[in-house]
């Protein structure tokens, strides 16, 4: 039996007992419940008190939640005086007692509170939800970042990669999980169950990370198509009836064409880099005949960057002759007009390559998807013309897509060069054409 | 597929790649592997580096391990100067930046190291093993308690009750789990599989806590017998063929007769209080006709205490007349001699009640088992003569056993009075007889 | 590992070996494959030969299949001469040898052929499919019923109730099973996944029988709603958002509102009677507070019967005064017109009660649904006006529905009286009103 | 939920109802229960009546059981007169009706009875048990073979290979299954759990067939050792600590060293031939580097045959000179005496080869193990001196063992030649040495 179910009945039973003794329980504030939970009463019937906090939090409206977060900030922060005293003692003696006392003084009581909330049924879920709210509030209340420091510290520790399980998602997975794929797919929209069934069809794979405390809730998932040769276009990947549907043992390439995070409350607690590499290994093990592992990725920042560069008279990237050509994009149907399309193609592809390779924020690439895969140790392999003619694809990158290639034996070297020196790994072909632009 | 298996192949593959690039890898020291794991290299192929640490640690001998722990103490501790500086800045500004900087300065790099080790296959297992070693070393090297502060802090967070799963253990459980029950049973010795099968027989239950990262490894387990009326003796509990084997729906009482911790490396990270209460709730749910939940527990400290009191001429507990009677215990076979047995019974039972109720360490009872159950909110119900005539039972408590009774509706009240004021809850009968002694 | 997967690889491997030795294998006819399978070659690599039959059958077109069934009829029937000889020997000696010889002579080689086909991967599935084809052919080729005698005999034995597993279907069941519910629902149409999710929502249950050899294929399923009091109308049952959604422990009645068979190839191999009674028992066990178990069922034959009676000038059921009232039904929107509706209600309800109670085919009721539930031992409880205003409901029974009530303690008695003497059990109220018509 | 559990509660509930109506139920005879079960009452509450039969049968003593079997023989056999009539009608008309009528007349009511018993909880188990009893009675009551004709016919159909599941048995399998391996191991005795753990250790495999209706009950299992080169001796196989424990990917040969049937009541319903071939395929799939699949088998009939030949003065196999040598075997410790051992070795090995190849019963080999593996299509590969020095090995075959080799591509050819013409396949080496004797 899963503990959660049991916790439920334990906590329910506990709550009944509490209610009998204290008729005013349901009226108590979230703040009172927290105080009870942290007191030694909490040790005896911890999950009942924790459940009271969970229920009270979930009932709160926006205003009450914000008030609650400020309460956490004001009443559950470490005491500066005490911290300085303990810091001095630590410097003086440097022994176990001083070390423990310093740490106890610095660790905010919020962390213990969060750990105790986690004992309630759905505790972890509530904390992830709570962080989702918190991140929203932080935009206008930046001082709440202090609370997120504690909460995200805890979640990073709990969602440590060693605690995640990788699971394959298939058409015979539980519907309650599958409906979440439809909901969370963030790259190539799914209109419903029929779309989903196609993405789990022949020569298709889907993998997700799960955490034991969020059963039935994928954290992140990746969709994969097994094909022959590097894919250059999205439609045949998301609809297998469009491709020549060869038999699995004739495929040689795994294309990662969509990666979606599912939990807004886990933003910034990165799983993506682990996920891709583990799926590569898993596919290699299961299908040893696969030799290439690559993404087919969007270039979300290209057109925005291009428009900024066009406005910039001194752009180092745009030649004068390009500007006329680019003006053809004003025609709404430019990509359906073969003549225009052929005229803009070399200019757009040249600029897009420059964008991927030269456009930087600090020493790293502007483009967030590029930053992600290059940071993982992949290389830029190839730019593809008209790989995604959906409205979104045209808006972001004039329909272009790029392959990032995962060569496992180079991943570590690429990663180090990228992180330390901003070096961008590319295929020979990409490099050659880039120089010739 | 469980992540561990996959991590294994991922990490193996990573290690192969690393080995090819760096022929000296296998010779590198544990210390070097740790440095690599904490560097940014670790981010690309984290689990490969983590695995190198795990392998190197497991190969180490006692001397190398001790050296390693001192290395952790010296090279991975927070910098006192920096801590003081950050503490002052925090006091001055009290904003997010200062808060984060203070915490970063105080959190020892060991914690990050341990979290990264946890990414390796068997990472959690290795950390539990490492703590087991550490606790051993601490006896002669108390300064290493500083490291245990960090490690136990992390393990407490990871083994948070919200992450544990309660599972029933039955005769159709995997042998690989069952053999651990035989190994870890700490209260009433099992000689092998036949004994185990009896303890999982008719009207018997066994429950254990598991953690998702230690598959197949019980953390703690409790053995339960369903009987009619409060049990007063061990043999019929551990061998159902000895009791009148009534049908399950005629039972009214669940007796918790054995609780064993399994992981030395998790010492002090308490699960027992959760376990008993949850099993009570679970049994109530499954078998609503059960009305009593009680232990039949050893009294491990009684005879040691008694012998100290006997040596103490001024003992407030022992009457002069008792001393003669107690000398009869010098006869090795006293408990088989009905005459002696009857003579010592009232004296021993009287003294044992005093021991349980009056003998204190601080404001809490001397006896560790009493401390545990009373701290959980149970009450002392009844003392039982000759409940355990095994060598161990005679040595610890002259064969006496005690029932601690779990009345869920009183657990919280009892717990609070016990923790705050040292009040010991008892049955009316126990109290009455105690006063009359 | 499930045998089917393995059988697949075994049979594939076997087929490869066979193909190497016999290049003409793929061209061989279904008839040749059957002959091989029955020969002693089949014993060595049985599943390979069986697989050849399965593949060849699935490739066949209608004409080839029909030819194949005639081949089974002509070449695999028992030899009449031999049967007579063995019958005489059996009469003469009546010993084991004669008994075995008689049976061997009478059992058609088709049965052995079918049993061997069953060894192939998907063998059972193929045989069910084959019977589905066969039943279709029988309409125009009644002599093929001889083959169905053998095939259905075998399937009845294999789908013996002792081999079926009852499983609850929930929203977290595999999508591959759920999509079959949408497909096979035969009583109250589901338009897709949203409908299905409602039917598996709060206070709803769904159970199906499965057979180990048809994994993922429900044989029959029943949809249940937990409500307070006997339900009289379909819409709130198939859409829980329409009912007052009380908490589960406030419900007292389980309504079986839809039962659908899934496998056309298993027609006539009845599971429905087992299913309902077992679900009643299962619900009683899980939810002891339920006290009533009833269907809310269509009356598929009522309007057809009524129209026949109307055409019959001498109908013993229709009074002259009724005929005028009934003519109001000519108005397409009669049921939306309150005046008409109220006028026809007493007449239609009276006639429908007579239909259910008096209209017979032989000694059993005309109505197939009545025959099914009364044959299971249920009683007619209540007739409900306007319980199903769907097009189908109006067409069949002018929107009326009937409750059949399962009183487990009366089921056997009712069943016997019904089967032996055609006695129809009813509630007192139904009986009373019936007499007063 | 498994049907069996549910059937239990259904049948229990049914039985309660029956008991209330008919107080004499528990006193009724097995024969009465059978009559009820076959009547139409059985259709309403079938499992309750079936359960009554099961309970009554299990309570019966030997005498009552024998009486019951004679009752089945006398009261449930087909009517010879009717059979002849139907046979004549079938010959005359040859249509569906005549066919069905013939079959109905010939099929004994016992078959329906057995099928209905199968609906009870543990029905299949009871029928297997019943056949176990029946086979015992047949020895002295050969006329009961008639009943076994029906029962084994049914069991063969139900235990059709298509319904079996192959499962790997490992140390983490349920103890309730593992204890049955200890109990049923019939070739190389296991003394208990320690022995079993070794046989499931490194480079060891174990596979069993299960049937869905006998959960937790292996039907047959095979133990496999993965080694390098053909094994010639048992001890290193049953105790992996004795072999050089190479890493799995260095092994090239799977040795099947023990095959045991588990269910006496399924005697003669052969699974062994399927089992070995499927395990070969499964191992090939999982471990593609394995190239040899062979048994290391006992030769149970050799010494018995040899002693008969020695008594036969005209033996065509034993030379005069051999007789003297063979007399050395009179020394109880002959195999420990190197001199004797070397003297008898060539003679015994020569004779044993002749035994395996020439000693026949009909056209097939005398030796039952040879008959089994050669019938499966294996070949005799090699005879091994002193492969099994256990008491049993010495008694059966003077410690010799033989390897039967499974070359999947030859299995079908070998099988056909063996079954049709008694041709025994051997390795070239075996053949060559055989001729040279």
TrEMBL record, chains A, B, C, D:
GO biological process, one term: fatty acid biosynthetic process
GO molecular function: malonyl-CoA decarboxylase activity
Domain Malonyl-CoA decarboxylase C-terminal residue range list: 162-407
Domain Malonyl-CoA decarboxylase N-terminal: 76-159
UniProt signal peptide: none
PANTHER family documented for this protein: MALONYL-COA DECARBOXYLASE, MITOCHONDRIAL, PTHR28641
Protein's recorded name: Malonyl-CoA decarboxylase
Domain of life (superkingdom): Bacteria
């Amino acid at each position: 039996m899963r503990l959660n179910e049991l916790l439920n009945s334990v906590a329910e039973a506990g709550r009944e007992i509490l209610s009998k003794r204290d008729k005013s329980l349901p009226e108590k504030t979230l703040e009172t419940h927290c105080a009870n939970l942290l007191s030694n009463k909490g040790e005896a019937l911890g999950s009942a008190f924790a459940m009271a906090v969970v229920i009270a939090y979930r009932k709160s409206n926006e205003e009450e939640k914000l008030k609650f977060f400020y309460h956490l900030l004001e009443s559950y922060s470490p005491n500066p005086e005490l911290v300085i005293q303990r810091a001095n003692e630590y410097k003086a003696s440097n022994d176990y007692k001083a070390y423990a006392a310093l740490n106890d003084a610095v660790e905010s009581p919020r962390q213990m509170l969060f750990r105790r909330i986690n004992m309630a049924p759905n505790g972890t879920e509530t904390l992830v939800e709570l962080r989702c709210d918190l991140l929203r509030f932080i935009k206008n209340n930046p001082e709440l970042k202090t609370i997120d420091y504690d909460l995200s510290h805890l979640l990073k520790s709990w969602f440590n990669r060693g605690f995640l399980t990788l699971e394959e998602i298939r058409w015979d997975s539980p519907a309650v999980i599958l409906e979440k794929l439809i909901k969370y797919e963030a790259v190539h929209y799914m209109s419903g169950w029929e779309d989903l069934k196609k993405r789990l069809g022949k020569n298709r794979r889907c993998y997700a990370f799960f955490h034991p405390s969020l059963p039935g809730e994928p954290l992140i998932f990746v969709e994969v198509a097994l094909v022959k040769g590097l894919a250059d276009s999205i439609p045949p990947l998301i609809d297998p009836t469009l491709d020549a549907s060869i038999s699995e043992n004739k495929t040689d390439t795994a294309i990662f064409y969509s990666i979606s995070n599912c939990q807004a409350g886990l933003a910034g607690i990165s799983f993506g880099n682990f996920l891709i590499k583990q799926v590569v290994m898993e596919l290699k093990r299961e299908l040893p005949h696969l030799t290439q592992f690559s993404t087919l990725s969007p270039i979300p920042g290209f057109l925005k960057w291009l428009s900024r560069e066009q406005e910039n008279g001194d752009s180092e990237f745009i030649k004068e002759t390009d500007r006329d050509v680019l003006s053809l994009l004003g025609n709404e149907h430019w990509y359906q007009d073969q003549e225009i399309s052929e005229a803009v193609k070399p200019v757009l592809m040249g600029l897009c390559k420059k964008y991927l390779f030269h456009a930087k924020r600090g020493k790293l690439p502007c483009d967030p998807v590029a930053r992600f895969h290059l940071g993982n140790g992949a290389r830029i392999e190839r730019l593809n013309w008209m790989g995604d003619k959906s409205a979104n694809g045209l808006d972001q990158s004039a329909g272009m897509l790029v392959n990032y290639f995962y060569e496992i034996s180079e991943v570590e070297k690429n990663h180090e060069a990228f992180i330390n020196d901003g070096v961008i790994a590319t295929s020979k072909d990409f490099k050659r054409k880039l120089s010739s632009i």
